[in-house]
């Protein structure tokens, strides 16, 4: 019958208010995620907020502020495992980072509500919604800007086509030309293209490029008698 000693009307009302606040605020964040059809939508964000609030509230009721703080630290680290589940890698692209970050923020909302910091929970919710909505046009505009090869962090590759008879000489020539232009090679791969053609792909250690310099290197590489075609390309690092 020990449970009878834990029934206190004011404490129960306090827990109800904390959980209700977490539920409402988590729902607001989840609605925005659901509207954009993200993998972690309405129910997930709501449950994360309510769960965080419940754990913190339980810790607070059992052992006071010190235990609530300890529970919050576990919530912060534990939610990382849940967030990792929504992150997916597709080739060189990584998806789900924003959704994982939103789940982390939903846990913060719930933790604040569970600690009876209701105003703070509302403020966190407002900032999360602002980050996911008001910043979208800014991100869209920045992504449409031309890529600055000289200042942006890039994955830079030089590709050259040759045949098996000239592979060794062509490979050595590519490395030498890049090193002479102060673009050291981090890795180099050879890929069969069929019809006795091979493609040499040199990945540069540098993450910035001066287009004119690399164009000159490509021109020198292409003049080698064993190389049929050469070009370079870059892609933004994620």
Automatic annotation (TrEMBL):
Q: Which GO terms describe its cellular component?
A: plasma membrane
Give all residue intervals belonging to the MgtC-like C-terminal domain.
158-232
A Pfam family:
MgtC
KW Cell inner membrane (keyword) present:
yes
Where in or outside the cell?
A: Cell inner membrane; Cell membrane
User: What domain of life does the native source organism fall in?
Assistant: Bacteria
Domain annotation MgtC/SapB/SrpB/YhiD N-terminal: ranges: 19-139
Question: Does the keyword section mention Cell inner membrane?
Answer: yes
Keyword annotations of the record: Cell inner membrane, Cell membrane, Membrane, Transmembrane, Transmembrane helix
**Topology relative to the membrane:** Multi-pass membrane protein
Show the stretches that span the lipid bilayer: 6-28, 40-59, 71-88, 97-115, 121-139
Role, per record: Virulence factor required for growth in low Mg(2+) medium and for intramacrophage survival. May be involved in regulating membrane potential by activating Na(+)/K(+)-ATPase.
Please give the family membership noted in the entry: Belongs to the MgtC/SapB family.
Protein name per Swiss-Prot or TrEMBL? Protein MgtC
Q: What broad taxonomic lineage does this protein's source fall under? A: Bacteria, Pseudomonadati, Pseudomonadota, Alphaproteobacteria, Acetobacterales
């Amino acid at each position: 019958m020990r449970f009878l000693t834990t029934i206190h009307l004011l404490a129960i009302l306090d827990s109800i208010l904390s959980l209700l606040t977490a539920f409402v605020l988590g729902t607001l964040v989840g609605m925005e995620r659901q509207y954009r059809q993200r993998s972690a939508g309405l129910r997930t964000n709501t449950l994360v907020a309510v769960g965080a609030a419940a754990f913190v509230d339980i810790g607070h009721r059992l052992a006071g502020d010190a235990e609530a703080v300890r529970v919050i630290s576990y919530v912060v680290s534990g939610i990382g495992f849940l967030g990792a589940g929504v992150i997916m890698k597709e080739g060189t692209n990584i998806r789900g980072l924003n959704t994982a970050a939103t789940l982390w923020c939903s846990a913060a909302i719930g933790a604040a509500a569970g600690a009876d910091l209701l105003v703070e929970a509302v403020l966190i919710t407002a900032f999360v919604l602002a980050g996911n909505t008001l910043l979208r046009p800014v991100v869209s505009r920045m992504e449409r800007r031309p890529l600055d090869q000289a200042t942006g962090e890039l994955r830079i590759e030089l590709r050259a086509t040759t045949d098996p008879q000239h592979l060794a000489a062509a490979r050595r020539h590519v490395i030498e030309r890049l090193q002479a232009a102060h673009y050291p090679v981090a890795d180099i791969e050879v890929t069969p293209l069929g019809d006795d053609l091979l493609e040499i792909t040199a990945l540069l250690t540098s993450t910035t490029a001066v287009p004119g310099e690399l164009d000159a290197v490509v021109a020198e590489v292409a003049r080698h008698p064993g190389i049929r075609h050469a070009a370079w390309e870059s892609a933004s690092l994620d």
